[in-house]
Amino acid sequence: MSLQKLENYSNKAVVQEEVLILTELLEDITKNMLAPETFEKIIQLKELSTSENYQGLNDLVTSLSNEEMIYISRYFSILPLLINISEDVDLAYEINHQNNVDQDYLGKLSTTIKMVAEKENAAEILEKLNVVPVLTAHPTQVQRKSMLDLTNHIHTLLRKYRDVKLGLINKEKWHTDLRRYIEIIMQTDMIREKKLKVTNEITNVMEYYQSSFLNAVPRLTAEYKKLAKEQGIELQHPKPITMGMWIGGDRDGNPFVTAETLNKSALTQCEVIMNYYDEKIYNLYREFSLSTSIVNVSDKVREMALKSQDNSIYREKELYRRALFDIQAKMQATKAYLIEDKDLQPRYATADEFYQDLLAIRDSLLENKGEYLISGEFVELMQAVEIFGFYLASIDMRQDSSVHEACVAELLASAGINDHYSDLSEDEKCALLLKELEEDPRILSATHAEKSELLEKELSIFKAARKLKDKLGENVIRQTIISHATSVSDMLELAIMLKEVGLVDAQKARVQIVPLFETIEDLDHSEETMRRYFSLPLAKNGLLQKTTTKKSCLATLIVTKTVVTCHHVGLSIKLNNN
To answer: What is the pLDDT of residues 33-57, one digit of tens each?
Structure first.
């Protein structure tokens, strides 16, 4: 069956109308900003481009002064931006339309799940499927939040254009609002002239959660489960999308990433998700005005209601509201503990305890024929707790292998174990490191020897990671990545560092060690390196893999760094087949 790819779809008539409006507004705004002769050059450039007169274009561009170049380049930067917004709006409109009329298209979730449902192991595929978008500092270093806000305003207005044409929205006001935002864009710096601090990057990237991920991911997951159920597949706890984060944890080449920024990243994320939960619970409190004079509730909900401090005489029969009030109070106490270290009680020790309280309300509603009441915000809240926990996104830690080696060499020397670790052969390094991991319970850094600034910094970051995992849950930091990994000793050196803070011991590893092979030469040897690694007793016992299988770990090694060549694709296939 051939399905339409909506990315290639375009309602040309509507887009052309919108582009004409946007172009006329931009030209009028630009004309008011520039001298007549400068604006005329913009018109000439467009005419030369349309006629494909490249020599004329070259001559005109070469003749521009620096000041003219600034304004003209701004015009030609903003024009395609506006056109792209129009095309994005049209695509979103068409996706909504196709979904609402139950029309299939390439990539549609329901269509895809139907196709997967035909597989023998469909339930396993859908249950274990997990895509992890990882937010890094790169987009926020360039695009300003001010520009993001302005483009969002224009996007919102263009989505109303069809209603403007139908006379449902005042055309003059719509046109005036659109012009205002385009005019502000023309007078706003599009990119930053100064590099952001890590703390700024952390704060700025949270905007993406507020504007999209917090609402979209739980809704998609709820729809994913519903569509699977329609195909006869009852999924338990699928997580088709979970979020990842590098900001605050990726210190490879960034000296400004410290234990403080790691803590800031994790707690900022925690605050965002706790505020989301607080808002959702309040909304449910306002919505669930069910009275026990009409409908019954479960014993568990009655118990929760009795504990509630919502003692208003007007809530005597509204037990769901009283139970939700109790949940919100515990949630707020939990937030105060996690963010501010305030020891308030009662509070939730884990996100699962919070989930169990929501589950009690859900089960009570189901027992009393209230299945339609658990759609919408309620089911989205439950999905969010499963997906985001108290941490929102898993932070990947990353450091260069040479830094780990330098730190381990210093630890071994200060503990009187070996003064020349870096001079050892690969086999000698592995033998020494394995002995420390398997036989020596000591904390090597617990000596009175003076430590270098580098070692102090690395140990403090790993200690901060341990505290965050203890407080926010294991998933707040799942893996630590080794840049420029070339050998088994690179992985064992990181294990030694993790052992220093209790993240690795003789029985378990609380984080996954992920080598990052970055050059073609390293990738050529990666299969041999990983075979040696997996042959180690520690690796065979799963100590240095956490819960990841060998095959999935190998896949991670190849795709973690985006280097796309046929050579690498072939190696990836070879590794997975083996």
So the answer is: 999 999 999 999 999 999 999 999 9
